[in-house]
Amino acid sequence: MRWYQRALPTVESVLPGVEKAATEIAALNGINEVFAWGSLAENITNKTSSIKDIDILVTCDFDSGDLLAIEKGPTGPFSIKSSELEEEGFNPLAVAFTKQFVKSAGFRVDYWALSRDDKLLHWGPITDSVEEFKELRKDAEEKVSKKLNLERKNLHKASATKRQSWLDQYTEEIRSCVASGPLGWYMALASSEEILCNAVKLS
After folding, report:
1. Helix, strand, coil share of the chain (percent; to 5)
2. pLDDT tens across 140-152, in order?
3. Is residue 174 part of a domain?
4. Do residues 18 and 202 lie in contact, with contact meaning Cβ atoms separated by under 8 Å?
5. CA angle at 180 for the pair 174 and 184, rounded to the nearest 5°
């Protein structure tokens, strides 16, 4: 089983896979730096801490407008030949970066990008601000913990079935709140200083 498929793994079990993904991401065209963010960054020194969210943040050379134009769907750039992207109004390098970035680590990862024009973007629908997104995650955790009578801090003691059930319901809680809109880049309201001061550089 791959590192991102385990139900709420610990920092110790996640970090090698995240660092490997960060190395691959850092090699993509247009990437400057790669960071861990969110729950992983907050707990990175506590190897036994359970990680419910894995956030990877990159600083990149793409303008936010080039990224915001990208969505995954029948009319999006992923279904257009590379040679025709520019003619259709897309930045071919931004499209190539997005394709590679979102498949680099796995489906349990939240992908973030700080654009050249200093905008924070998230792959997939999101609340208006990072603080709202954090609050949403906190509420989802509390609801699922109460519903299953199992707190996140005790998940390492639970069976694999209970851990998976907890994670599935937690993921569904978040998805149900932000699932309006196609899969693509969305802008969050936050300053780069606010984001980078809480991030841990990976490469």
Report:
1. 45, 20, 35
2. 888 888 888 888 7
3. no
4. yes
5. 90
3-state DSSP call for residue 59? Answer: strand
- This prediction has a pTM of 0.74
In 106-191, which residue ranges form alpha helices assigned H by DSSP? 130-148, 160-178
What residues make up the domain containing 72?
3-126+182-201
Structural domain contains residue 54? yes
Which pLDDT tens digit goes with each residue over 14-28? 888 889 889 989 999
Residue 193 is encoded by which pair of tokens? 């200083």
How many separate domains does the chain show?
Answer: 1
Instruction: Please indicate, yes or no, if residue 105 is contained in any of the structural domains.
Output: yes
DSSP string for residues in 4-47: GGSSS-BHHHHHHHHHHHHHHHHTSTTEEEEEEEHHHHHTTT-T
Compute the CA torsion angle 18, 56, 151, 172 (nearest 10 deg). -110
Contact call for residues 180 and 122 (beta carbons, < 8 A): no
